[in-house]
Structures are given as C-alpha cells and as structure tokens.
Q: What sequence folds into this?
C-alpha cells in the first residue's frame, strides 16, 4: 500500500478544527475514517452528535468512507468504543490520531483541582484510552501509526496553561516510549504540535495572525505521519501556517565528577554544565 490508501484511521476530536482537517485529508487520500467527537464546548461541557455527523457527511459527499463515533476519550470505555467502531465498520484499525482536546486556562495561583483534572482526563488519559485499545491490534498486524496532539505549551510552557502544558508534555513522553516499544512491530508513534485557527485559539491570537493559520496547513503533516512511507518514530513536529519543523533534545558535553562533589564544587563547574555551545543530540544514558 502507499500513503494512507486503504488504511483505517480513527481521529478523535474530529468534529471540528484540526481533527476535521486531519479526517478530511486522509479520507481524500483513500483512508477509511472513524470521525470521533463528543460534540461539547471548548471547556469540555456538553455533548452532541452534530459535529461528528457533519464531518462524516462531508467525507461521504466527496466519495470517501467514514463513520461517526460520539464517545468521550476521557473514559476507558470510550477509547475502547472508538476502536470497536473501526473494527465493526472496517474490520481493522491502522492509525490513531489522539487529537481531542479542551481548554481550562488559568494562572497557576488560580488553577483549581477541577481545571487540572479535566484537562489531564481529556488530553493525556484520553490519548492513553484510545491508543491502549488500538495497541494490541497494531502490534499483532505488525503495522500501526499513532499521532498525538502535543503543543508548543508542552514543549516551552505558556502562561495560564500549567494543566494543558503538563498534559501536552506528558504526551511527548508517551510517544517516545511507544516509539521504543512499537518499533519492532512496525508501529510508529509521533507528536504533532500544531498552530491553527480554530475555536480553541479564536481569542488567543489576533485575527490577522489567525487568517494565515488554516488547519489545512497542518493536516498533510499528520497525513505523512500516518502514511506507510513514514519511518520516523518518537518525533515531535511543530507545524502551522505553511511551516513545518522538528523539535529535538540536545545535551551539553557536561562534566564528570570522579567523586561525589560538594554543592560548591557543582556550582564551580556550573558554567561548563550549562554550556550549550558544546551540545550534541541528547541520548538516554540508561537507554
Ligand atoms: P477544537 O476545540 O476545534 O477541537 C477539539 C475537538 O475535540 C472538539 O471538536 C471537541 O468537541 C473534541 N473533544 C473535546 N473533548 C472530547 C472528548 N472527551 N472526547 C471526544 N472528543 C472531544 O480545537 P483544535 O484547535 O482543533 O485542537 C485539536 C488538538 O490540537 C487539541 O488537542 C489541541 O490541544 C491541539 N492544539 C491545537 C492548537 C491550535 O493552534 N489550534 C495548538 C496546540 C495544540
């Protein structure tokens, strides 16, 4: 097979914004798509069928194949039901895009436990639930593609997004481990950190910036990460407005202490420890 043709891809949160663009681009390229969306508001409240149904209708009207799922990724049963929808409708699952998301922004001193938990439940637990349900199928068929929606907030941090940044950073740790565990089974896992004008960003950036950030720019990058030709795994890719970058870790040359140093001896060598001019791609010393 080539590209995503004939593959079965489940996209969570595909009733609007970026998820819709991912679903449309892979359907146009010949994938069969599960369009999952709970259909609630930006803060996670409410639910409905209209969002997922509209994207399924759009795909079918263009000659593509799609089915709707209205399950919430926030529950284990929801993740299982999304994968079951793919198996029931199309007999297999090849790709999962864990894209569903909500926002509960607040400066950290005002962030409540509820704001924290709601965001972890949809982004981090939500990705776990759907990917965990698909994983045995991907392993057994020795082919699979996982894409999770990370964010520059998870890489660099962002004011008011301690909950969201923690979840998004967690997703990067998730795909790095899935990349290690999946490689010998032909299962690749990567993270996309998108930048796009959607309801999520409607009041975050000015209109003149947002008009250059169609979700359509991000969708082919996700399409590549789902394609048979993709060989990368464990990568983090920032994409938006026509730009596509990989973000990677580097480590300084650092220092080696022969004996346990004092606090002062560590301080004395701090400039060397933090000298980025010596940096090389980071490797896991216990990997
Ligand atoms: P969006 O709000 O348009 O789409 C998110 C979708 O997820 C919505 O359709 C919503 O109904 C669905 N959803 C929410 N909770 C759900 C649940 N429990 N189960 C199933 N579906 C659920 O937002 P957008 O911008 O399209 O975001 C998509 C992903 O990209 C999110 O994970 C977001 O955090 C991430 N992202 C977006 C950026 C942007 O610039 N738009 C920047 C960085 C990350």
A:
């Amino acid at each position: 097979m080539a590209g995503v043709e004939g593959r079965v891809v489940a996209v969570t949160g595909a009733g609007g914004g970026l998820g819709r663009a991912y679903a449309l681009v892979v359907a146009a390229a010949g994938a069969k798509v599960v369009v999952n969306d709970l259909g609630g508001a930006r803060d996670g409240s409410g639910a409905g069928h209209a969002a997922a149904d509209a994207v399924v209708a759009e795909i079918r009207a263009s000659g593509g194949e799609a089915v709707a799922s209205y399950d919430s990724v926030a529950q284990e049963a929801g993740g299982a039901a999304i994968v079951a929808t793919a198996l029931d409708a199309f007999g297999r699952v090849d790709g999962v895009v864990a894209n569903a998301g909500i926002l509960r922004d607040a400066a950290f001193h005002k962030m409540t436990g509820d704001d924290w938990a709601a965001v972890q439940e949809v982004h981090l637990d939500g990705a776990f639930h759907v990917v965990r349900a698909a994983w045995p199928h991907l392993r057994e068929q020795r082919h699979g593609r996982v894409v999770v929606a990370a964010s520059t907030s998870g890489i660099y941090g962002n004011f008011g997004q301690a909950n969201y940044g923690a979840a998004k950073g967690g997703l990067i740790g998730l795909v790095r481990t899935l990349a290690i565990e999946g490689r010998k089974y032909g299962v690749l896992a990567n993270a996309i950190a998108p930048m796009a004008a959607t309801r999520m960003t409607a009041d975050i950036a000015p209109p003149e910036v947002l008009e250059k950030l169609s979700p359509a720019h991000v969708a082919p990058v996700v399409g590549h990460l789902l394609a048979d030709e993709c060989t990368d795994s464990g990568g983090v890719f920032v994409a938006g407005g026509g730009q596509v970058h990989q973000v990677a870790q580097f480590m300084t040359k650092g220092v080696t202490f022969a004996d346990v140093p004092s606090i002062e001896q560590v301080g004395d060598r701090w400039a060397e420890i933090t000298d980025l001019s010596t940096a090389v791609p980071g490797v896991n010393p216990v990997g």
Summary: The mean pLDDT is 97.
